TrEMBL record:
Pfam families: Ank_2
Keywords assigned by UniProt, alphabetized: ANK repeat, Repeat
ANK repeat intervals: 61-81
The species this protein was found in: Melanomma pulvis-pyrius CBS 109.77
PROSITE patterns hit by this protein: ANK_REP_REGION, ANK_REPEAT
Protein name as catalogued: Uncharacterized protein
Superkingdom of the source species: Eukaryota
Keyword Ligase: no
Keyword set includes Disulfide bond: no
Amino acid sequence: AAELGHDEVLALLVNSGRFEVNLKDSRDRTVLWWASKNGCETAARSLLVAGSAMVNSKDKDNKTPLYVAVEQGNKAMVEVL
């Protein structure tokens, strides 16, 4: 859901408490990283509230969720993070 930019679906999944919010993919990208990349501000807030400690986690390209939000020019996401 995060990778495809489905903000509301991702927020529902996070709020359900039924999945690990700190998982990483093969490129070390977290759910929060993908939410940042795709402008899912609602989901990002939910992830942070749910305890996603991965806000400073870097992917294999050394990009954090904040870096990706800045790179995308997403001021709202930058403010969330």
